Every structure is written in C-alpha cells, then in structure tokens.
Amino acid sequence: MNKQDFRKYAHRAADWMADYLEGVESMRVKPDVQPGDIKNQLPLSPPQQGEDFERIMADFQSVIVPGMTHWQHPMFFGYFPANNSEPSVLGEMLTAAMGAQCMVWMTSPAAEELEERVMEWMRQLLGLPGTFTGVIQDSSSSATLVALLTARERASGFAINQKGFSGAERFRVYKSTQGHSSIDKDVKVAGLGIENLVNVAVDEQYAMIPGALEEAIRKDVEAGYTPLCVVATIGTTSSTAVDPIEAVAEVCRRYKCWLHIDASFAGTALLLPEMRWMSRGVEYADSFVVNPHKWMFTNFDCSCYFVQDKEALVRTFSILPEYLRTGVDAVVNNYRDWGVPLGRRFRSLKLWFVLRSFGVEGLQCKLRDHIALGAWLEDAVRSAAEFELMAPRYLNLVCFRYHPSGVDDEGTLDRLNEMLMEQINEGGRMFLSQTRLNGKFVLRMVAGQTNVALRHVQQAFAWVREAAASVRS
Predict the structure, then answer these.
(1) How far apart are CA 263 and CA 362, in angstroms?
(2) Based on CB atoms within 10 Å of each CB, which residue in 144, 161, 250, 412 is the most buried?
C-alpha cells in the first residue's frame, strides 16, 4: 500500500469507526454464531499475492464484525466494562501510526516523560499518598504478578533472582475467597506454588475478615511458613465487595507482610471524594493497581500500578545488557525495568487524551451517573416480587436472581436463572454474566459502558422480567 492509498483508506477507516461508535446500539450485542462459523469463512492458506484493501475491508465488514461481541454497546452489562471513548480511540490511532517501542527514555523520550506525568495525575485523582510512584502495566494480572515478584525478592534479599529457590523458602500468599482468579495464576507463575495460596473467609458482605486473615497467618507462622503477601480487593469481581483495607494493613504490618491492593474496576470510583472510604488505609499498602481500561473510558490495555518501594521494584526487574545502556540512565525512568516485558507500548498517550478531553469534572459526572443507574436497578429489583438482591450494592454492579413464588429448591433456582441468562444472551438484545455467591447462581448486571443511559437500564430490566416469565412458563 502506497502513501496515497493509505491516506484514502485511513479516511475510510476513520469514517467506519465513527459510524460504528454512532450506530453500535442498532447491532446485536452478542453475535448469532456457532463455534467454527467464522473460521470456516476464512481460506485455509494465506494469499500468495497481496490483495486489494477494498476486498480486505469488505471481508472485515462481512465476516469479522458480525462475529464480534460488541462491548461498546450500551446494552452490554456483563463482566466489568472494557469501555473506550472517542479521544481514547484517537490516541490509539496516533500510537499505532508512530509505532514506537518505548522501552527506555532514549527510545522515545516523550513517551517516558508523559507516562511519568500522567501517573502523577492519576495518583492525585485517586487520592493516593505522594509516596507512591506509578507505572503503566498491561493488566491487573501483570501488576499483581509484579507485586508478588517484588515481594518475593525483597523477602529473600533478592537471592531468588540470583540463585533460584533454595528449597528452604516456605512463602504464603493470602487473598479472600472472593479474590480474583488471576491471583491464583500469578502465584503459580511466581513459582510460589498454588498450595501456598490461602483463601481467607469473608463476612456477609463478601469482604475479607481481618480476624480470619490474622488467624491464618498466625497458624502459618507457627507451622514454619513466611507470610509473603496479602492481596486485598477494592471491588471484587463477583459483587464489588470492599475489603477493610485499614484493618488488613494492620495485620500485614504486624507480620511484615507485603500488602497489594487490587482495585482494578472499582478503583476508578476513587475519583469521587464521597467514595474514598473504600481506600481508607491505602497509605499503608505496598502496591496498588487500578485499570482505566475498565471504567475510565480508555481502550484496553492500560493498567496503572503504584508502588511505595520503587527501588525494590526496579532491582527485581532490572537487566542491563550493553546494547541497552545510555548516557542518561541515572536521571530517567527506564520503564523496561518496572515490569516483566522489555518492550513497551505508548499506553500513556490515550490516557492523556482521555484525562484532558473529559477533565476531572467530566469523569466524575460519568461515574456518578453510572452509580445512579446501579441505584435505580437495585430499587427496581427490590420492588419486583419475583426477584431478589443477592449482595450489597456499592457502585453500579447489581447482583440478583429470579426467585418465583413457590420455588425454593436451590438446584431449581440455579437452573431457572441459568436458563434465563442464556435466553437473554442468545436473544442478542442485551448481555449479562453470572457468578456464584454462597454457592448460588447469581446474575450480574453492571451499567458501566461509556454511553449507557437510564433508558437502557430500564429497557434491559424489562426484558429480564419478560424472559423470566417465559422461562417460568
């Protein structure tokens, strides 16, 4: 493709993107396809000669788009949002055009310095103490792995990186029973062993019980284990439960245990002063992560990781071959030493675009609107005799289930709700996801897509009630 054709097709692609964002609401949320349907439309071998971009774009529109689940649809209420916005998309486009590899300051000075400044802005917006230093990771999974590895190295005097495990280490990691499954994976990847991950009991609001944490740690210490890290959560995936950070931090302090806070989704709400109760005690944490790519209208991937001990972080990951040495290494942040990958994308640009385009007040307005939608849905569920709330609502996620009169067998209720969700999702008009709380099948509905409005939530719940009546009959 020559530069003239690129200009022509770039304009056409931009028009398609604008049309998509404007018209996504008219599409099915979940595609009407079966496994293999997309692959069977694709040739078995790549083309020997280059193809015209007109044909490539036509196949994109006829084969790929109909097979996509549209996360930017305002009727997408499943999981947690992975939302975007127009300024973020534009930032991604410019990043792609420059194609920069931003591993050290020398390879792209503006990328390093913008990331540094944007992370300082984020620290202010979230109400984090000035002792935190931030860096952008790709996801919370990576950020938590970074926290575990840094905790491991600091606890071992950085010996494991140098010599490997001696076999004498008996590290333990703790999370609540509601902690994210990525923590399990990270414990395995860090070489700590999944049998050394302790799941701590939660209270009736699904938050970690500090007393249960302390009892688990005490027993481990008596058995010869070393408490390495506690992962507390602000906004669990199943129900957005909030662990009592201050009380958990006190336990960690007594046992000299690294405290990592997973605030992947709900941490964005800390932009609102009235929600800062969730992070009370955050100044005692060793590390903290929040994902703007979930609820801050920034394209995936963009995960903001903050750490108190920057030197321990860098010492854990620093590798300096001759070909990466530069004359300014002593006075800049070379972010290739702040996480697992050497190569780094220019992620801060899109976040910068979002922060400047919305402004603090614009972001706060969106978040308050979404939380109000959650409150409306909570009231609607509470008022509907055939439904019941299954967990406290803190933000914009509502956990509920269909519970018709006269049906109290838990197995039957599970099957009814699973059938209800499948019927809703297969219909394509909206999308929900599920979890289990106290062993019960629970529907999750979170109003967090960038352009979701009250009319969408009202229509969605009307469809839920309509589908429930159909399932019951």
Answers:
(1) 21
(2) 144
Are the CB atoms for 80 and 331 separated by under 8 Å? Answer: no
Q: 449, exposed or middle or buried, with CB in 10 Å at 0-12, 13-18, 19+?
A: buried
Span between the terminal Cα atoms of the chain, in Å: 58
Residues 451 and 402 in one domain: yes
- Report the distance separating Cα 219 and Cα 221, nearest Å: 5
Task: Express each pLDDT in 141-200 by its tens digit.
Answer: 999 999 999 999 999 999 999 999 988 899 999 999 999 999 999 999 999 999 999 999
Could you count the other beta carbons within 10 Å of the beta carbon of residue 312?
16
Among 314, 291, 191, smallest CA distance to 234 is for 291
The residues pairing with 289 across neighbouring beta strands, listed in sequence order, are 262, 305
Q: Which helix (H) or strand (E) holds 93?
A: helix 86-98
Domain CATH code at residue 2: 3.90.1150.170
Please name which of 271, 336, 348, 340 lies closest in space to residue 304, comparing C-alpha atoms: 348
- Helix axis angle for 348-383 and 86-98, nearest 10°, is 150
Q: How many CA atoms lie within 13 A of 395 on its CB side?
A: 33
337 C-beta neighbours (distance < 10 Å), count: 20
Query: Cβ distance 264 to 448 under 8 Å?
Result: no
- Residue 307: domain span: 100-345
User: In terms of residues, how long is the chain?
Assistant: 473
Q: What is the pLDDT of residues 282-295, one digit of tens each?
A: 999 999 999 999 99
pTM, two decimals, is 0.93
The distance of Cα 258 from the centroid of its chain, to the nearest Å, equals: 21
Report the number of distinct structural domains present in the chain.
2
- End position of a domain, from candidates 319, 345, 371: 345
H helix intervals, 223-347: 245-254, 292-295, 310-317
* Residue where the block lists tokens 């792209």: 108
